Amino acid sequence: MTLFELAKKNVVRNLSRYALYVGTTIFSIVIYFTFATLKHSHEISALAETSKKISGLMSTSTFILMLFFALFIAYSNAFFLRGRKREVGLYSLLGVRKKQIGLLLLFENIVIGAVSLVIGIILGIFGANALLQLLMRLMDSDLNIGFAFSASAFIETFLVFLAIFLFTSFQGYRVIYRFKLIDLFHADKSGEGVPTAKGWVALTGILTIGVAYWLALQDLMTSSLWKTLGLAMPLLIIGLSVIGSALLFHSVLIFALTWLKGKEHWSWKRLNLLTTSQLLYRIRGNAKTLTLISIISATAITAGGAIFSVYYYAEENVASYTPYTYAWKGEAVEVNGATFESSVEQKTIRTEAQYGESELGVIDESTYRHLLQGLGVAEPAPFKQGEVVWVDPFYDERYSEDLESVELSGQTVDLSTRLEESPLNVMTFGGSFLVVADDMFKTMTEPSETYHVTLTESFKNQRDQSERLAGLGLESFSSAPDVYAETMAVNGALLFVGTFLGLVFLVATGSVIYFKTMTEAEDDRAKYTILQKIGISDRDVRRTVRQQILVVFLAPFALGILHATVALIAFSNLLSMNFTIPVLVWMGVYTTIYAVYYGITVRRFMTAVR
């Protein structure tokens, strides 16, 4: 039997061990092939003004995926190699040379890589088209792209993953020469001593994370720290979060488990003492992995939650920018399907602003109320005699300038009332304007300009009419269909990228925890066999296994959720938006997939130790 045939037999024999790794790798290849297809797709170029943004986004995403997959596959191979040290030692004891053992492992990795690559690319060809259709749906685009195949994407995916598999294969080949025979047979006995944690180190970890959260929640517009540190502030927050997370797993978690172990009324119940002892025994080896997973989880949840939140409110934001379907300055034109039409006479005044003079539009009260009626918006209470109302839908007290008074018709008028509901399209009329009484408007000597606004029942499917109106050369023309199409194109592409990058990170982190846990299962098999021989019930064994694995899964995930929650609160405060619903949906999906990984790991662990 040749080494290559033996390698194939080993792969088939250990198929259950490699199943999740192969599945994760195939999923990674499908996602990478999809992003590469989008990067090279000529159909995406048909999206005109958004094509460059999307192409750049896909190029950046494929680069991030390439680095992440290389690290993930190398990390996974290291776990598999550790779990096979006794097997390698047996080969050495039988007289097999290290060169031949290295070639055997090299062939095994090549077989696994080749199978994963072939299946991944085949599924990627069809998966890319399905995901491309999903992207079009998210972008709310009616572009019909048909079946897309990119030879450039095929070649790029093949070469990237071929290089990754060859690198990790030769890396395993080199590692064989560093093993000593005695170390290989006693690999499962070379554990770490029970770690101890100092109280001041644990307290430092908690304080470090607390400072990072406090800095993150500072108001970007008003905080003196943000003004002083500028772009260095995000780096400081990230650095403190990473350091705090590392200290949390190295010290805080150990401190908490040690304290729990010392509570006799708890530790002497069932197998609680064994549970805490096992966790403490392994904690040093898991600390770096847990820290890395918590940071990756926080990044994926934050990015995905923020992007999904922006996408979730996209239509609402379009309505705030363009409440009327069409608006323009000049002569009236015919609009098909119009349910409400009105002309708006506006005058412009110049006011003193913080950084010089600025222009401000003025309309009369009757026109303002008529526009609100057309939109079905509740009208404000009647204005007081001589009252001037300032309408600014984008006012923010943190950075918007306060207008206390303006000069109208030669007299200074106080602005005591400010409203945020605007019935005018921002791109045509500007965001801020004044509403004055009808008689005051008539006495104003500034020249007036005539605008027109039109409302239709639905603006989402009116791109043809919007193009027709834009072709007429209307001055200051604004179109809700155009704004909606561009907004959905950009936000849909961002959501697509954020979702699948998040899924890739989630699948990879879940797989890393699975691999590490299953490696420890090989080492713990003898211990659980002894427990069963002395009469410990299978129920109690399963209970301690669930508890140990739960800590390994839950600790980094909970910290990642906490990091992401603080980051998303800061982001929502910055945009003055409520992200609660979309963020909870995103976190729910993330948690569900994570829970599936936990269930699979518990099941496989129990199978391994029985």
Structure, explained:
The structure is a single chain. The protein has 610 residues and is an alpha+beta fold. 67% of the residues lie in helices and 10% in strands. The strands form two sheets. An eight-stranded mixed sheet has the order 7-4-8-3-2-9-1-10. Strands 5-6 form a two-stranded antiparallel ribbon. α3 runs parallel beside α18 and α18 packs antiparallel against α19. The chain is elongated, with a radius of gyration of 32 Å. The two termini are 32 Å apart. The relative contact order is 0.11.
Radius of gyration from the CA trace? 32 Å
Q: Which strands sit side by side, in order, in the main sheet?
A: 7-4-8-3-2-9-1-10
Helix-residue proportion: 55-70%
Q: Give the structural class.
A: alpha+beta
Rough outline: elongated
* Biggest sheet architecture: 8 strands, mixed
Q: Please provide the ordered H/E string of secondary-structure elements.
A: HHHHHHHHHHHHHEEEHEEEEHEHEHEHHH
Q: Which stretches are poorly predicted, pLDDT < 50 over at least 5 residues?
A: none
The whole-number mean of residue pLDDT values reads 78
What is the CA-CA span between the terminal residues?
32 Å
Number of helices: 20
Strand portion, in percent?
A: 5-15%
Question: How many strands appear in the DSSP assignment?
Answer: 10
